[in-house]
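Retro notes
What went well: the complex prediction finally ran end to end.
Inputs used:
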Amino acid sequence: MYDKTIPFEAKIRWIKRETRDTATYALKISDREIQRAYSFSPGQFNMLAVPGIGESAISISSCPADRDLMHTIRVAGDVTTAIDRLNVGDVVGVRGPFGSGWPIEETVGRDLMIIAGGLGIAPLRSIIRQILKSHPGGSRAPVLLYGTKTPKDVIFRDEFPRYRDVFEVHLTVDRADPEVYWRGEMGVVTALLDRVTFNPLNTVVFMCGPEIMVHRAVPELVARGVPGEKIFISLERNMDCGSGICGHCMFGPRFVCKDGPVFRFTDVEQFLKIMEI
Amino acid sequence: MESLKEKKIKKIKKIKKDDLKILFDKLRESYTVIGPKLSQGVVVLSEAGFEDLPAGFRDYQARGTYRLTDEKAVDVFSFSNGPDSFKRFLHPPLNEIFSFRKSKKGIAIEPAAKEGRPIAFVGIRACDTWALKLYDRIFLEGPARDPSYSALRKDSLVIAVNCPHPGDNCFCSSMGTGPEVTPEVTDVADIVLSELEKSFIVEASTPAGSDILEGIAGEEATDRDLEEKRSRIESCKKAMKKSVPYGELPELIYRNLEHPRWKDTAKRDLECGNCTQVCPTCFCNSSYDLIRLSGFSQKGAELKGVRIRKWDSCFSRNFARVHGGNFRPSRRARYRQWMAHKLAYTKEQFALPGCVGCGRCITWCPAGIDITEELEALKGVR
Amino acid sequence: MKRPRIGVFKFASCDGCQLTILNMEEELLDIIELYDIAYFREATDKPLRGEFDLSLVEGSISTDRQRKEVVEIRERSRHLITIGACATSGGVQALRNWASLPAYKKTVYPSPETIEALSTSTPISDHVYVDYELWGCPIDTDALAETLVSFLMGKRPAVPVYSLCMDCKVKAIACLLVSRAEPCLGPITKTGCGVLCPSLDRPCYGCFGPMEGANIESLMELFKKNGLSHKECMLLIDKMNTYAYRKARIEQGL
């Protein structure tokens, strides 16, 4: 095994611009041995480092079977700005993978509903791609609900036709954009629940998005009868070390970096209610 | 065979008080000895010998107050905890983790070597052995074993002491973390000292501790000595002035996360972070890359620098800050985070107490905020 | 890579922060290699020409002429960083903000009528947009080096915003407030000086200004308990960062 406290080098193989501020970076781990030893499960994250600038926790947006290790990054702070300036062939530092993944075992015999908001689709794309590769067909199609601010902010837009082969997909935006023709819905992502017929008692929800979306969507799902124990949410916090020794990402008693980022809703429910926890 | 080994480890001896010097000298042969020492008018921990022990000194502590006087007391360990703890040495406040060099060839990273002799801590109280046990769990048993801590902790030795006099702000007895070094923590305390009126009882609890005791001449401890040891521990317990309702934790905190008291405390709270820095269980830190101007060469094509890990505090405004927001913008929330982490969260995270009752946060809080008083206040109706 | 053009300017100040730059002996050559120092009031007498990638501004705005000049400097600068207590919080000369200017003039100067000054001394940020502020009287060379490096790297400088106490503990300095009841401003003051005074056994007197959210009132209460009068407490904060401390108090509704 390699040391997860020391970054290893990875080369950018290609960059795909997703929206005006978001791009997907495909990385190739330089060291052959680390390459072989490195494995992750959908929902986990890496700490990406630009030497001299710092590190940022970025969820993995590819699935384990993909050839490339992908991260979909929005320009926000110093590190992501620095990554945005990099080109194909440049290198970054990587530590990871860290955290819990999506509990795929929970979906066995149940209907999966994926709810994503904005960049929150990045860690979910990992599981979406895994399902695309392995879905047996025949059983009920998993549902994917995705909301963004405007049609221009839809990430992985090119992949949605493929998603529709397996998933029942519904998209929504907060507001229209005069430059883009929009066939999806308008309004919050929770409103999409009315578009889907689902058996709440047999549904498992994987959710990732802005905190406000989580706060709205979870009570809505619970009100419709989805058991709280079957709702899984990926939380965002300022991860720094990745292994529970720096204390930055604490959410109540949970370390988002090692206990999460994916949590069973009922495990964090009491803390989600508390402001500034 | 097993029982023989057991017997070998369970070595109990009685030594003369001055023979503690022999122990120090013996330790110095292979360790860097860290012990209590007088400096700047307080008891600090630093490299120390037997003669450095502030024997006979007594400290007077109150909320936000610490005074040390030479009372020529008979006991060697007549003083109680100062601001320092082992954490300064095992989790250094400014710690280089690795150095890096970025060039056209890529990124080269060199982990910082932690060299030097192993550390022997002398005079660690029961409370701090619990904190050390917690540190081991945090840094060694997490998803990634921390190389820096692991290197500094490796081969280190702990000479703990059964606390003879509590500090004025101590409450370990009610936390179950002292004043006696109990079997729950003898795995981190290699040797336990018990001060008697005229001698020390020394007990080795690990093979490493037993090796050290090998060469020290001593007598067999009599039943009377053991009785004296017990009665001293009892009187120390009785002398403790503060307590917390341990049995009600962590629920008392969980029930009261929205208690109005947090807001009242925030008015006095200086958010200077002193409590977190002196707390032996507070471990929070931040990492950053440091590049000096000389680290640039060929006009930025090549870079070299170091990754530093520095003590941080949940009281720092940047602690929970992310781009575009702060998870804990109010002082009230930051104080609550600290106290809840001590008294509720840690237990859930590491199955060990997050507060060891050492009272340092009470003494070294300039505003004199008293964690035991705050906890009492939470019991009041909202 | 073209070296960024740097300009060092000064207004009402003692030149101490500019001298701090000149005192960075070990790093001065690196600075010259990495930056084109196009203007340096303390070190050259070249006239002001052209645009600057980065301007370092020392001193407070104390006269009408300075008020106009700072606008011109801002117009010529891609980035503007204030250096030191004067530029960042008005300096010790801001004491006149809470007093009468004629009375001050009369006390200090033999012929006060020749002194042209505004009735207030104010930080640069009261006049133009400031990209980043370096506190301190004088500034700390490490913080300046970090800022210059960060500028080249395109990141925010890693200068901590917490209290001085945090660094006192890093350096294992016993708390002067707790162990000796000294009136130390450490708990409300930004760190950054390298714990200069406490490591020389003296309480902090606030060169680096109030930290964000400084609980000034709570500390004052403490000083009063230790026997200081309100006036004595105010004297502690009425130094080179008087404007910043008083502003922080006003923001706290005091």
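What we learned: The first helix of chain C runs from residue 16 to 22.
What to try next: split runs per interface for comparison.
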